[in-house]
Amino acid sequence: MKKVLLLLGIVCIFFFVGCGQDEETKPSAQEKTKETVQAAKQEIKETAEAELPGKDKTITPGCATWTTGFFLEALYSRACEALGYEVEDPKKLGAPIFYRSLAAEDLDFWANGWFPLHDEFLPTNWEEKIVMAGTVVRAGAVQGYLVSKKDAEKYGIKCLDDFRREEVREAFDANNDGKADLVACPPGWGCEKTITFHMDTYDLWDHINLIKAGYSASMSDALARYNDGQPVFFYTWTPNWTVYKFKPGEDVVWINVPKIVPKEGQKGLEEAMVAKGLTGTVTDPCKMGFVANDIRVVANKKFINENPAIKTMFSLMSVPFSEIAEQNNKMFEGEDKQKDIERHVDEWIEENQDKWNAWLAAAKAAVK
């Protein structure tokens, strides 16, 4: 009898242990529900991605060589990615090479077109291959020459012609070559050609020395000199971080060119070369010598016509001038790595989520 009871006990032990193991390995109803939900979400995601207009398509963007254009490239490329396109790393090019590459279909677009400044870089019969696909900022890109306000007042500087005066040249001569030093533009930039045209037209080569090294580095040097109490003289444009560090009307003032003389590409736009009501000018109106530009998205015509979602997205997108300048200042403060710029894009989209979603919805609807 004792043996029988012992055997029964052993059998029961194995039975309960086996039952316990089956219960542990068997998924609960909650786990089953969770797995089902996850599978459904994944299916929805895969279905949504499959329905995106850019599925299995690749885009090659261009990007300006000037750092203030990096944010716009990243933002517009992100829009393409949101539509399902695979976006290759941007090719950084000067304006003359970019437009030739665009016409040759080596690139698809860039968001760094400045017009009418870049008109002279467009190839012959460009309308056959190139299209203006959107406007980032309309007439917000003001350009011109500025000097430190206290020195403009001290020496009575109102115009480039004032740098003919010996005492003015000496005050702004940082390298002791007998000429006033002007932070200008690197070779290949559209502004470099216009500044050269001004030196020729107003006969200023004997009075002004153009600093054509890297613009950001040269402006950083100018900022250091200004903080040391020294005079500064530079060219700039907006939007740009420089107007955060040198506030027009407080730190610096815009000055006049001697007279409005349009170069090729500016003819017929003389009125747009005179600023009225601009903050921080020595006179109002002020003869800037540069046309206020639109910042445009420029694309290959074939690419745009074959991608209606991109065409719609680019036509709707825009970025306020002040927000571009704010981001540019972050880059100057040291947030200038690609990961920083991508984070700035994330932040901009989050702050403009409703608008961003509306653009995407309209772009997706364009292909239905």
How would you characterize the overall build of this protein?
The structure is a single chain. The chain has 2 domains: 157 residues, D-Maltodextrin-Binding Protein, domain 2 (3-Layer(aba) Sandwich); 149 residues, Glycine betaine-binding periplasmic protein, domain 2 (D-Maltodextrin-Binding Protein, domain 2, 3-Layer(aba) Sandwich), CATH 3.40.190. The strands form 6 sheets. The protein has a 3-stranded antiparallel sheet with strand order 5-14-6. It is elongated, with a radius of gyration of 30 Å. With 368 residues, it is an alpha/beta fold.
Top CATH class of the largest domain: Alpha Beta
Would you give the CATH topology of the largest domain? Answer: D-Maltodextrin-Binding Protein, domain 2
| Helix/strand class | alpha/beta
Tell me the domain tally.
2
How many runs of DSSP E, i.e. beta strands? 14
Provide the spatial order of strands within the biggest beta sheet.
Answer: 5-14-6
Overall mean confidence score, pLDDT: 87
Percent helix range: 40-55%
Q: Biggest β-sheet: count, sense, barrel? A: 3 strands, antiparallel
What spatial form do the alpha-carbon principal axes imply?
Answer: elongated
Secondary-structure element string:
HHEEHEEHEEEHHEHEHEHEEEEHHHHH
